[in-house]
């Protein structure tokens, strides 16, 4: 057991055998078979990845980080196609260990060097994995402009797995949403759901759906209610379901209360900034309801119903809504009121 452990070059001491235990029973193979396995670099890297996964699952992040550094040094400047899959998997778990320690941004230069080597060696599996790690490191610091520049100056490998591609599309959708490109963000997020696994990966699908719900609302669309009734989404999407109902009602006071109540939830999901933008969407839906309900209403009443701060802000909001075609009405600055235009019956006119 110590000889085999030494051949694996692990950074810490092995767990001693219990009394009566046989080495071959613990390893589930003979010494001869173990000696044959560790002659091949693919087998060694596979064992390394398993050990790294075990350290992360056990919460031993310090040793996981140190062991990840050891694996990275073993992989550095290796050009062997049979190691591409395992090398990409190892780099992913190394980044997980660093991220859990809050040190993901520190290894960005190292990841860039590894990405350059993957490009030179035409390792498309490694390229896809490392691109996602680089983008994630940018998003961890809210460096959306740098992430956008990286995406525009690189090309995602066509032969990558659907899992990596769906993760890439999710990051693209988040960047587009923050930069006010809602239609592109919606398209990327929908494609991420289609490319992602249909069974399992519940956490990923939940995160994509949370962002997609907000993007739909920012575009003036209401998500289907059936989405929130699914078993996997019912509980995690509950705050977002309440936000959807609030937007439909156009209730600004309720929106503020929900924002205060679920502030930590939106902040942990990194959607707080986007949820704040929904204020204008809530006002638009509220104005639509007022436009349908009242033929004429004063700006003071509109201010009270929408819980706006002052008369000047109310007049500007109503004027912008009329100009953008949100409501069909006429604004009177002199009398400080809004008159809804009458809906004509098309059958009583000469229109074809």
Characterization of this structure:
By secondary structure, the protein is mainly alpha-helical. It folds into three domains: 40-152; 161-292, no CATH class; 294-352, Arc Repressor Mutant, subunit A. The chain is 65% helix and 3% strand. The protein is built from 19 helices and three strands. The chain has helices at 2-8, 23-27, 31-37, 41-57, 61-75, 84-100, 108-120, 124-140, 144-152, 162-178, 182-195, 202-218, 225-228, 238-249, 252-261, 263-268, 272-293, 299-306, 311-323, and strands at 296-298, 329-332, 337-340. A three-stranded antiparallel beta sheet has the order 1-3-2. Helix 10 (162-178) runs parallel beside helix 12. It is elongated, with a radius of gyration of 28 Å. The model is unreliable at 1-14 (pLDDT under 50).
Topology:
Blueprint: H1 2-8, H2 23-27, H3 31-37, H4 41-57, H5 61-75, H6 84-100, H7 108-120, H8 124-140, H9 144-152, H10 162-178, H11 182-195, H12 202-218, H13 225-228, H14 238-249, H15 252-261, H16 263-268, H17 272-293, E1 296-298, H18 299-306, H19 311-323, E2 329-332, E3 337-340
Antiparallel strand pairs: 1-3, 2-3
């Amino acid at each position: 057991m110590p000889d085999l452990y030494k051949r694996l070059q692990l950074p810490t001491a092995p767990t001693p055998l219990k009394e009566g235990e046989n080495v071959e029973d613990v390893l589930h193979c003979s010494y001869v078979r173990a000696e044959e396995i560790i002659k091949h670099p693919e087998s060694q890297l596979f064992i390394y990845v398993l050990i790294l996964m075990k350290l992360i699952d056990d919460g031993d992040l310090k040793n996981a980080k140190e062991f990840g550094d050891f694996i990275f040094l073993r992989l550095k400047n290796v050009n062997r196609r049979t190691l591409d899959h395992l090398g990409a998997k190892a780099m992913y778990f190394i980044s997980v260990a660093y991220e859990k320690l809050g040190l993901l941004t520190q290894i960005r230069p190292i990841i860039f060097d590894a990405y350059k080597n993957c490009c030179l060696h035409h390792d498309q599996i490694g390229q896809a994995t490392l691109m996602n790690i680089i983008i994630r490191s940018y998003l961890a610091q809210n460096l959306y402009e740098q992430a956008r520049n990286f995406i525009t100056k690189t090309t995602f490998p066509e032969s990558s797995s659907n899992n990596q591609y769906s993760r890439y599309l999710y990051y693209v959708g988040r960047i587009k949403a923050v930069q006010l490109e809602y239609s592109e963000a919606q398209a990327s997020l929908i494609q991420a759901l289609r490319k992602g696994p249909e069974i399992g990966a519940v956490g990923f699908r939940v995160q994509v759906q949370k962002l997609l719900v907000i993007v739909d609302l920012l575009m003036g669309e209401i998500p289907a209610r059936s989405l929130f009734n699914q078993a996997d989404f019912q509980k995690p999407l509950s705050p977002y379901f309440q936000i959807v109902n609030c937007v439909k009602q156009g209730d600004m006071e309720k929106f503020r209360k929900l924002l205060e109540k679920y502030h930590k939830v939106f902040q942990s999901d990194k959607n707080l900034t986007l949820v704040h933008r929904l204020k204008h969407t809530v006002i638009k839906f509220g104005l639509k309801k007022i436009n349908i309900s009242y033929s004429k209403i004063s700006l003071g009443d509109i201010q009270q119903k929408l819980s706006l701060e002052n008369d000047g802000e109310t007049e500007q909001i109503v004027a912008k809504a009329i100009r953008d075609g949100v409501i069909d009405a006429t604004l009177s600055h002199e009398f400080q009121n809004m008159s809804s235009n009458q809906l004509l019956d098309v059958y009583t006119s000469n229109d074809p």
